[in-house]
Task: structure prediction
Amino acid sequence: MVFSGSWRNLVETRRMFPHADQAKVKSGKTVTIFNVCGNNFRLITAIHYDRQKVFVLNFLTHAEYSRNAWKNRL
Result:
């Protein structure tokens, strides 16, 4: 599945992916998290809106995500 978009911020991202959320990680940066496969997995990304690029940082099960250890690695 391929998606195309030109989002400028989280509000615009949520128009296509309503359950997208943002979180701060240990480095102080903000990541965007997508619920995937019926909320069973989390896709953690860095979206550079100014460059129109999405970088995949992590793909976790719901249980792994809930432990919050991933926040310390990013």
User: Anything to note?
Assistant: Strands lie at 21-24, 30-36, 41-48, 53-61.
